[in-house]
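Anyone? Bumping this.
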Amino acid sequence: MASEGRKRLALVASKGTLDQAYPPLIMASTAGAMGWEAGIFFTFYGLNILHRERLRHLQVSPIGNPAMPPPLHALPMVKVPNLLGTLPGMTAMATTMMKGWMSKAKMPSVEEMLQMCIEADVRLFACATTMGVMGIRQEELIPQAQCAGATTFLDYAAGADVSLFV
Amino acid sequence: MTAAIASTLDCRGLLCPLPIIRLSKVVKTVDVGAVIEMLATDPGSVPDMEAFEKQTGHKILERSETKGTFRFLVQRTK
């Protein structure tokens, strides 16, 4: 159980794209706002979210994502062929597009969301195996990242009331 | 029932998770028993505020809607 009878949220963040970085950070910061403890285990490409440099360059690709780009409200019948996503510059374009929606909707950036998690004392576990496999050193990660293995995270998650894999 | 409002939090135009995160910060700045007026336009804030009440114990004294703006009076209980 979590301390002081507080509820606990345990998340796994396994994806390193711009769109997929948001859900775990939103969930964890909200848990913190409700007085819960929260911890996120960042593994494989999800570890990019804790990477000082890569954090600022997360992207979203239209390739293999039939939901992107979304249809225009004015022209719902017009569909952009997914194959066009393979053209040079399309990932950058999709990323810019998504950042535009986020900013228009007054949503914080991924860095700001992470900062909100830090302010809410969310524990940020950096997957030790991913660090070893991808050759990522502790100093490449933000200082709040705690290098840990699956055992540490499972020990934490064993006391959780809610556990989700993102 | 009209309670004296200690603080007003304008979350109009903001989406989840910002309204709840900002509310949780404001709750910490007022005295126990004080009432916060919270304004929001995100329809998700209606069930979210109920869940916030359930999870935190802070009480929603009033809720209303005027032209797409939701208004909540939240009392800090502890």
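Late reply, but here is one note on the structure posted above: Chain B touches chain A through 15 residues (CB under 8 Å).
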